[in-house]
């Protein structure tokens, strides 16, 4: 008897010593599948989980080190029961990776699944949970290939689910609220994080660790959301979703495009190496207004002449890269990225290359998207 009591005590002490993560806590209750009993008055939102810090876990609630993609979609749903008042939800696990490992296989699977779901009459919108590292690229990719006006909303968190003041649960709640909001329709793919609603073409990660990391420096916010209460200011900038000319129909692989950062004393070696490695396009994260050294310009123009699509973007945090400013893009067959940063220029260029490698056509696409 005494042995039994001390065993129970030992187990109780061990459990009490574990961190009390928002998502992991709910895991115990989350044995059941993520499908809830249908409430006809509420819209149906499908949650697609891909991993990231929002699904991350650490051994204690105050440590910086953690592992992304530890918590499954059922646990994510169970951890925010408040969201059940906003929508009928069901979840699907697309992947469970840190978004630094995001890749074309997951992108194609995710985009195809979103297109299937938004074509279903009973689905009002889709929420995608993702890591913050590459969320801007995934959001922009989906913005160009999803064929629906229904809300598709990505969300993420900077702190893992086990952290003190984890930001994931409220971000998730707000994302569901925006996806369930009829006014979110027709605004392109959205990213909801830290009370702000960003357009896919505008947001960028600006801090490695701060919770307030995402900004839409050039094109501004689409709206704000406070505890599920959304206010929309405007629509997205650039062609998107139903007005996009890009489609994944018949696409099994995306062309390789490399990003090369310009710097003092740059030569053309990396530009030539990228093409030798199979790149069909190059994006330069240029200095200033998309500039690079004379030897690098020479190498870039030589590749452009051979039919490699070459885009000048900038390593500067914000601002437009203009055409024919300090370089003669017309003569050199180069494309100016205008308002797109290097990582988003790469996304657009990969899709552009599924249609054309003509720099004039590609410039037209950068003008319109
Ligand atoms: N490395 C993580 C990821 O992108 C960071 C995060 O989600 O905040 O998956």
Helix amount: 25-40%
CATH fold-type name of the largest domain: Rossmann fold
Molecules bound to protein: aspartic acid
Overall pLDDT: 91
How many helices does DSSP assign? 11
Oligomeric description of these chains = single chain
Write the layout of secondary structure elements.
Blueprint: H1 2-17, H2 22-27, E1 44-51, H3 73-79, E2 88-97, H4 104-118, E3 123-129, H5 135-145, E4 152-155, H6 168-179, E5 190-193, E6 196-199, E7 204-205, E8 214-215, E9 223-226, E10 229-232, E11 257-261, H7 269-276, E12 281-286, H8 294-305, E13 309-314, H9 329-332, E14 335-336, H10 342-352, H11 359-368
Parallel strand pairs: 1-2, 1-3, 3-4, 4-5, 11-12, 12-13, 13-14
Antiparallel strand pairs: 5-6, 6-9, 7-8, 9-10
The structure holds aspartic acid.
Quick overview:
This protein is an alpha/beta fold.
Summarize the structure in words.
With 369 residues, this protein is an alpha/beta fold. The chain folds into two domains: 44-243, L-asparaginase, N-terminal domain (Rossmann fold), CATH 3.40.50; 257-368, Rossmann fold (3-Layer(aba) Sandwich), CATH 3.40.50. The chain contains eleven helices and 14 strands. It has helices at 2-17, 22-27, 73-79, 104-118, 135-145, 168-179, 269-276, 294-305, 329-332, 342-352, 359-368, and strands at residues 44-51, 88-97, 123-129, 152-155, 190-193, 196-199, 204-205, 214-215, 223-226, 229-232, 257-261, 281-286, 309-314, 335-336. The strands form three sheets. An eight-stranded mixed β-sheet has the order 2-1-3-4-5-6-9-10, with helices on both faces. A four-stranded parallel β-sheet has the order 11-12-13-14, sandwiched between helices. It has a two-stranded antiparallel ribbon with strand order 7-8. β3, α5 and β4 form a beta-alpha-beta unit. It is globular. The termini are far apart. The relative contact order is 0.10. Residues 1-21 and 24-32 have low confidence and may be disordered. Aspartic acid is lined by residues 52-53, 68, 98-100, 131-133, 156, 158.
């Amino acid at each position: 008897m005494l042995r039994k009591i001390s065993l129970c005590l030992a187990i109780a002490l061990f459990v009490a010593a574990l961190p009390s993560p928002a998502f992991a806590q709910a895991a115990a209750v989350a044995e059941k599948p993520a499908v809830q009993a249908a409430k006809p008055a509420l819209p149906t939102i499908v949650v697609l989980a891909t991993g990231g810090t929002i699904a991350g876990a650490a051994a204690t609630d105050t440590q910086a080190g953690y592992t992304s993609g530890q918590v499954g979609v059922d646990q994510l749903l169970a951890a925010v029961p408040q969201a059940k008042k906003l929508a009928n939800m069901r979840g699907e696990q697309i992947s469970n990776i840190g978004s630094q490992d995001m890749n074309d296989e997951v992108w194609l699977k995710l985009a195809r699944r979103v297109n299937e779901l938004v074509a279903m009459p009973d689905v009002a919108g889709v929420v995608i949970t993702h890591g913050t590292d590459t969320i801007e690229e995934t959001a922009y990719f989906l913005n160009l290939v999803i064929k629906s006006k229904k809300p598709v909303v990505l969300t993420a968190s900077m702190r893992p689910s086990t952290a003190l003041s984890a930001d994931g649960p409220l971000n998730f709640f707000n994302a569901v609220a925006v996806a369930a909001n009829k006014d979110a329709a027709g605004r392109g793919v959205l990213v909801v994080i830290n009370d702000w609603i960003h357009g896919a073409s505008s947001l960028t990660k600006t801090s490695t660790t701060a919770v307030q990391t995402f900004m839409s420096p050039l094109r501004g916010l689409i709206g704000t959301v406070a505890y599920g209460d959304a206010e929309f200011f405007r629509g997205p900038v650039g062609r998107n979703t139903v007005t996009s000319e890009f489609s994944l129909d018949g696409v099994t692989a995306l062309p390789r495009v490399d990003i090369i950062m310009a710097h003092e004393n740059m030569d053309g070696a990396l530009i030539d190496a990228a093409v030798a490695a199979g790149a069909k396009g190059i994006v330069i994260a240029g200095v200033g207004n998309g500039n690079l050294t004379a030897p690098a310009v020479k190498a870039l123009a030589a590749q452009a002449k051979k039919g490699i699509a070459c885009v000048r973007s900038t390593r500067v945090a914000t601002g437009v890269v203009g055409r024919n400013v300090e370089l003669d893009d017309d003569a050199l067959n180069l494309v100016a990225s205008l308002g797109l940063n290097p990582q988003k220029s790469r996304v657009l260029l990969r899709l552009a290359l599924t249609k054309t490698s003509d720099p004039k056509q590609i410039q037209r696409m950068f003008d319109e998207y």
